[in-house]
Automatic annotation (TrEMBL):
<feature type="transmembrane region" description="Helical">
    <location>
        <begin position="14"/>
        <end position="33"/>
    </location>
</feature>
<dbReference type="InterPro" id="IPR019533">
    <property type="entry name" value="Peptidase_S26"/>
</dbReference>
<protein>
    <recommendedName>
        <fullName>Signal peptidase I</fullName>
        <ecNumber>3.4.21.89</ecNumber>
    </recommendedName>
</protein>
<dbReference type="InterPro" id="IPR019757">
    <property type="entry name" value="Pept_S26A_signal_pept_1_Lys-AS"/>
</dbReference>
<dbReference type="InterPro" id="IPR036286">
    <property type="entry name" value="LexA/Signal_pep-like_sf"/>
</dbReference>
<dbReference type="InterPro" id="IPR000223">
    <property type="entry name" value="Pept_S26A_signal_pept_1"/>
</dbReference>
<dbReference type="InterPro" id="IPR019758">
    <property type="entry name" value="Pept_S26A_signal_pept_1_CS"/>
</dbReference>
<keyword id="KW-0378">Hydrolase</keyword>
<dbReference type="GO" id="GO:0009003">
    <property type="term" value="F:signal peptidase activity"/>
</dbReference>
<keyword id="KW-1133">Transmembrane helix</keyword>
<dbReference type="Pfam" id="PF10502">
    <property type="entry name" value="Peptidase_S26"/>
</dbReference>
<keyword id="KW-0812">Transmembrane</keyword>
<keyword id="KW-0645">Protease</keyword>
<keyword id="KW-0472">Membrane</keyword>
<comment type="similarity">
    <text>Belongs to the peptidase S26 family.</text>
</comment>
<feature type="domain" description="Peptidase S26">
    <location>
        <begin position="12"/>
        <end position="177"/>
    </location>
</feature>
Length: 191
């Protein structure tokens, strides 16, 4: 085989490999994971403005969100929001004296401890019941109730109402930027 033919075959092999890699990247991005850049302070201190995240897009195709998962969802046609799942279908939600109550049981929110230290005596989450802000006694089937960790500066279910399950893009699993703050998110299981 001539050297020109070997070079041509080598070039064809490289083009095939690059083509396969591009196809795989497109499939992975379309169906499995997505990269997001966070804009805003609604999830501070857990997630900061400018953090870069990997969102698992397939997890809720095979299962349901868990309480305290960090999710990305379609808030409107132009924006996706990242928030924390607080209420699941059938849950009654209330806040009293900065304490979360789900189905009349007090629930610890360990992800707020750091922020509460900075707030001092200031209340992070105002008192409310689900009925007062949504007109419904429980989270409806097929919907969830979400809040930002920075309760004083978050547009969440207190303002936009319930999030429809079909609007969930996926679960935030990994913060990869900045590198020195890399972190895997797995929610906080309290039950």
């Amino acid at each position: 085989m001539s050297s020109a033919r070997k070079e041509r075959n080598g070039l064809v092999d490289w083009i095939k490999a690059i083509g396969i890699a591009l196809i795989l990247a497109i499939i992975i991005k379309k169906f499995l994971i997505e990269q997001y850049v966070v804009y805003g302070e609604s999830m501070m201190p857990t997630i900061q403005n400018g953090n870069r995240l990997i969102v698992n897009k397939i997890v809720y195709d095979i299962g349901q969100p868990d309480r305290f998962d960090l999710i990305v969802f379609k808030a409107n046609p132009k924006e996706d929001y990242i928030k924390r799942v607080i209420g699941l279908p059938g849950d009654h939600i209330a806040y009293k004296d900065d304490k979360l109550y789900i189905n009349n049981k007090p629930i610890d929110e360990p992800y707020l401890r750091e922020y509460k230290q900075y707030a001092g005596t200031r209340t992070l989450t105002g008192n409310f019941t689900l009925e007062e802000i949504t007109g419904q006694n429980k989270v409806p089937k097929g919907k969830i109730f979400v809040l930002g960790d920075n309760r004083l500066h978050s547009i969440d279910s207190r303002h936009i109402g319930f999030v429809d399950m079909k609007d969930i893009v996926g679960q935030a699993n990994l913060r990869y930027w900045p590198v020195d703050e890399m972190r895997v998110f797995n929610g906080f299981k309290t039950e």
